[in-house]
Amino acid sequence: MERIAIIGLGLIGGSIGLAIKQSDVGDVQVAGSARTRGTVQRAKKLGAIDIEAASAAEAVKGARLVIVASPIIAMRAVFEEIAPALAEGAVVTDVASTKGDVSRWAKELLPATAHFVGGHPMAGKETQGIDAADADLFRGKPWVITPSVDASESAVNTVVGLAQLAGAVPMFMDPDEHDSYAAAISHLPLLLSTALFSVAQGSAAWPELAQLASSGFRDTTRLASGSPEMAHDIMISNRDNVLHWLDRFIAELTRYREIVAAGESVAVIEAFTRPQIERENFVVNGPPRRDDREPMEKVSLSEMLLGSKISGFMNKQQEIIKAAEARANGKRP
Amino acid sequence: MERIAIIGLGLIGGSIGLAIKQSDVGDVQVAGSARTRGTVQRAKKLGAIDIEAASAAEAVKGARLVIVASPIIAMRAVFEEIAPALAEGAVVTDVASTKGDVSRWAKELLPATAHFVGGHPMAGKETQGIDAADADLFRGKPWVITPSVDASESAVNTVVGLAQLAGAVPMFMDPDEHDSYAAAISHLPLLLSTALFSVAQGSAAWPELAQLASSGFRDTTRLASGSPEMAHDIMISNRDNVLHWLDRFIAELTRYREIVAAGESVAVIEAFTRPQIERENFVVNGPPRRDDREPMEKVSLSEMLLGSKISGFMNKQQEIIKAAEARANGKRP
User: Fold this and answer.
1) Cβ within 8 Å, pair A196-B280
2) For A117, phi and psi rounded to 5 degrees?
3) Which residue of chain A comes nearest to B144, CA vs CA?
4) Which positions in chain A touch B138 (Cβ < 8 Å)?
5) Positive or negative torsion for Cα B283, B285, B286, B289
6) Could you tell me where the DSSP H helices lie in chain B?
């Protein structure tokens, strides 16, 4: 029976476990480890794992696929711990919200006999921890896969299969490119959401403000309920990109401030009309088309685990990475 | 048969019509008018109104309750138009997102024989217009009622009855107090949401960013999809309060920027921990308790329309207004 290991059983690790267990992947055993024994027991009880491992090293023993779902900053230590215990040819992936540092740690610490392919399932919710785990958390959401140029085809396909098994939309990206984009689309919103909640809740009028809070305030501050540890790890490991986008945002907000302060009707309505139209377009039609990013074929994780060779992906992936590198060198987003 | 008039049949006006028509209010006819004849016809077809009125003045003829759901800036002209046509003793309310200007226009323009009691149902959604109308839009949401100190008891109770009929949570507030609080809890989030979408969509990397956009980006930018006309009216009519809170927010965001830039772990985690804990507390336990704002008794709109006297509200309301005025005079939120 094939073995999959999950290191870290919070919202993401737990949800991946549930997604695997509730899928039709077949004869697979999921071993899990976490910082506390209680979490591992709870994951077993909820059906997210089959085997309670006492440590990360124990969990990965004999595993064909290892999913590291620890906090970002902890991943370095996890890689150090599992490196000697990894099976020959094991595929290692992760779920960190930033990919640059993690990819470098993997290259530095994991043995050449293992295959690291980074990943970032872009999904979350208002509640954290194993009890919030949900097999459908990733359904329809992006799952970024950041293979190094020398990653093996079957390793990449294994991680694509995992994303597809969870119902996510796999997409390839260079690790550093991912971090720059994620700073804009994910880490900046996290900062704004937190600062907005903080300024309202920190006000002397908070009891009155809270009475008035409706769905708009709730939606815009939802990200403030995320794990502070995860926010910390993101801000530390993706600091420069976050600051870059934060400064762009502050400049944009200052532009809006000037428009509101001037109170000139045409300028005010124009400032709200373009975003409204463009967001409507985005919601209805989805992201703008990119000719070089086509939808992927469906690949099954079990085929991947069984080592069957599926071609086509690698070529497409190489093209995408080359295009991404050209973009990354040519212009900063 | 009692008559209710709704002037303006967008998302809010249309949803109020549906809520009235789908309630157990009994023998009530709803007359509606809007800027275009097509909207009025559509509202009739959707069951939001019974009578298609050719103008606001025609709609209010013989109506016991008039709900003005036009854009804020248009309300002055609506008041001018309906003033000569209002029935003796008619109760006039509105749904504007800002209450100061509207209350002053009502005082200036509406006849002394009518009773104006301002209102603001704090609900919205991603789509606008009569086709987005929903009888349940207001369910569980705050519906702020801003009576002047000389408002009649039965007029106030009529508007409370309307809010309760729609399933909303009525709460009393001074108009200017409302505008200050709404700037923080509603208009500032609208600005941030719009500026965030604008900076992402305006970037050369938007095609890549959009691919990565997940529920977090979607939630934090939802308000950017609101009506640009409404945003304009809010920014114009509540400019000073919006600027006040925008500056407080920029200061808070700058504080976060410094913490991220310094990259000191303890400070970073602390900056995300307090908002996370406080928002969790807010989501689980609701707003902090205010001793002077108790839940209201259930009052039926039909009783109000039939003129029955219900006591108790006025005294409580007067107390609340006095307390609000004391707060407004004593401290700026």
Assistant:
1) no
2) -135, 105
3) A212
4) none
5) negative
6) 11-21, 37-46, 56-60, 75-82, 100-109, 153-165, 175-182, 188-201, 206-212, 215-220, 228-237, 239-262, 265-285, 301-305, 313-330
- Grouping H, G, I as helix, E, B as strand and the rest as coil, residue A118 is strand
Sequence-distant (6+) residues with CB within 8 A of B201 are A275, A278, A279, A282, B210
Q: Are A275 and B198 an interchain contact pair (Cβ–Cβ within 8 Å)?
A: yes
How many CA atoms lie less than 13 Å away from B171 in the CB half-sphere?
23
Chain B contact set for A178 (CB, 8 A): 212
A167-203 pLDDT, tens per residue?
999 999 999 999 999 999 999 999 999 999 999 999 9
Q: How far is A322 from chain B (nearest CA, A)?
A: 15
Can you tell me the distance from the alpha carbon of A135 to that of A140, in angstroms, rounded to the nearest whole number?
12
Are the Cβ atoms of B260 and A239 closer than 8 angstroms? yes
* Optimal mutation site among B276, B290, B325, interface A, most CBs of chain A within 10 A: B276
Closest approach of A220 to chain B, Cα-based (Å) = 4
3-state secondary structure A162-191: HHHHCCCEEEECCHHHHHHHHHHHHHHHHH
Among the partner-chain residues B194, B215, B271, the one whose CB lies closest to the CB of A124 is B215
* Cross-chain CB nearest to B248 (options A199, A254, A256): A199
pLDDT reported for residue A282: 95
Alpha-carbon gap, residue A94 to B221, rounded angstroms = 28
Write the pLDDT tens digit of every residue in A96-149: 999 999 999 999 999 999 999 999 999 988 788 999 999 999 999 999 999 988
Report residue A310's pLDDT band, with 50, 70 and 90 as the boundaries: very low
Residue of A nearest to B137 (CA): A215
pLDDT digits (tens, 9 = 90+) for A256-290: 999 999 999 999 999 999 999 999 999 999 998 76
ipTM of the complex: 0.82
B160: its two tokens: 């409370």
C-alpha pair distances (Å), A57 with each of A28, B86, B257? 19, 79, 38
Phi, psi for residue A303 in degrees, rounded to 5 = -60, -40
> How far is residue A160's CA from residue A170's CA, in Å, rounded to a whole number?
6
What are the tokens at B105?
């226009």
- Per-residue pLDDT tens digits for A12-64: 999 999 999 999 888 899 999 999 999 999 999 999 999 999 999 999 999 99
CA distance A152 to chain B (A): 24
Most B CBs within 10 A among A211, A230, A266, hence the mutation to make, goes to A211
The Cα–Cα gap between B48 and B21 comes to 7
Three-state SS at B141: coil
- Using a CB-CB distance cutoff of 8 angstroms, which residues of chain B are in contact with residue A142? 211-214
Kindly determine whether residue B219 and residue A222, on different chains, have CB atoms separated by under 8 Å.
yes
Res. A326: pLDDT tops 60: no
Per 3-state DSSP, chain A is made up of helix, strand and coil in percentages (nearest 5) of: 55, 10, 30
Find the closest chain B residue to A268 by CA distance: B232
Taking an 8 Å cut-off on Cβ atoms, the answer to whether B333 and A205 are in contact is yes
